[in-house]
């Protein structure tokens, strides 16, 4: 009976953990609102007719609706920008879309095409840590949490039910530890978010040593260059790029956080 009580407690703990996935991390839903549906139809007609500006305007309005897939709308905005020859804007939109649709292979291919068209440098060779991070990035926070709940459930079941099998109990303990590490990673990301990234939207961006147009230049960026934002001050961004770092006017950079 004590074993059964322990198992019930374990299952209850896992259930509470899984319930945490139902917060603001919930996945995008399809639109059923008539106003949203009308904008979708308007954007589709304009895109098919080659009226990229009109399609972009309709899609931009759709971003203000909560009942649409934000990732899909951003991907379509990227496609419109690419058709209009605004390749840096396309890179920005595709990067934003990937935050919502991290496993969309077609979206990643579109991003690679836009980057190549801009002549951007290919990514550096991946380390094992990079590969692991990229693999984890394929999961949304909700999916991370559900995976952790599943691992914890499996681990607790093994640990509680396999009392006479030391090897299985060790495996169960390892699974629980892995689940806790996964939850810990999510908590760290929420308490200490990763650096904000941005994309240069103008042809040439001049970096300055200080947040002042009269300050000495410290480098230049090209359209589509992807930077890490380290500080903000009075309409300026402090950015880091492999070719240099410095301050740049904020309106020249589109932030990936949409």
Give the SSE layout.
Blueprint (H helix, E strand, L loop, with lengths): L1 H18 L14 H15 L3 H11 L7 H14 L3 H14 L4 H13 L10 H9 L4 H21 L4 H26 L4 E5 L3 E5 L8 E6 L3 E8 L2 E6 L2 E6 L3 E3 L3
Antiparallel strand pairs: 1-4, 1-7, 2-3, 4-5, 5-6
Which tags fit this structure?
15% strand, Serine Threonine Protein Phosphatase 5, Tetratricopeptide repeat, 3 domains, 9 helices, globular, 258 residues, SH3 type barrels, two-stranded antiparallel sheet
CATH class of the largest domain: Mainly Alpha
Morphology: globular
Under the CATH scheme, the architecture of the largest domain is Alpha Horseshoe
| End-to-end C-alpha gap | 53 Å
What does this structure look like?
The protein has 258 residues and is of the alpha+beta class. It is 55% helix and 15% strand. It has 9 helices and 7 strands, in the order αααααααααβββββββ. The radius of gyration is 23 Å and the shape is globular. The N and C termini lie far apart (53 Å).
Question: Can you summarize this structure?
Answer:
The chain contains nine helices and seven strands; from the N terminus they run H-H-H-H-H-H-H-H-H-E-E-E-E-E-E-E. It has 258 residues and is of the alpha+beta class. Strand 2 and strand 3 (217-222) form a beta hairpin.
């Amino acid at each position: 009976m004590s074993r059964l009580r322990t198992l019930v407690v374990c299952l209850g703990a896992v259930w509470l953990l899984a319930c945490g996935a139902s917060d603001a991390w919930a996945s995008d839903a399809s639109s059923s609102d008539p106003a949203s549906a009308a904008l979708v139809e308007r954007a589709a007609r304009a895109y098919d007719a080659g009226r990229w500006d009109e399609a972009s305007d309709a899609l931009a309005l759709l971003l203000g609706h909560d009942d649409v897939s934000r990732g899909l709308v951003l991907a379509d905005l990227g496609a419109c920008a690419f058709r209009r020859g605004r390749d840096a804007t396309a890179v920005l939109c595709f990067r934003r879309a990937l935050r919502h649709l991290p496993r969309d292979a077609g979206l990643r291919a579109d991003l690679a095409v836009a980057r190549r068209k801009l002549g951007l440098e290919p990514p550096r060779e991946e380390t094992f840590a990079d590969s692991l991070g990229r693999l984890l990035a394929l999961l949304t926070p909700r999916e991370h949490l559900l995976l952790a709940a599943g691992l914890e459930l499996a681990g607790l079941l093994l640990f509680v039910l396999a009392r006479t099998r030391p090897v299985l109990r060790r495996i169960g303990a390892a699974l629980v530890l892995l689940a806790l590490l996964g939850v810990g990673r999510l908590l760290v990301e929420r308490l200490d978010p990763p650096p904000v990234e941005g994309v240069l939207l103008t042809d040439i961006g001049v970096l300055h040593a200080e947040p002042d147009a009269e300050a000495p230049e410290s480098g230049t960026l090209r359209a589509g260059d992807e930077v890490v934002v380290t500080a903000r001050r009075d309409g300026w961004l402090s950015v880091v790029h492999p070719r240099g770092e410095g301050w740049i006017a904020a309106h020249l950079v589109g932030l990936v956080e949409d």
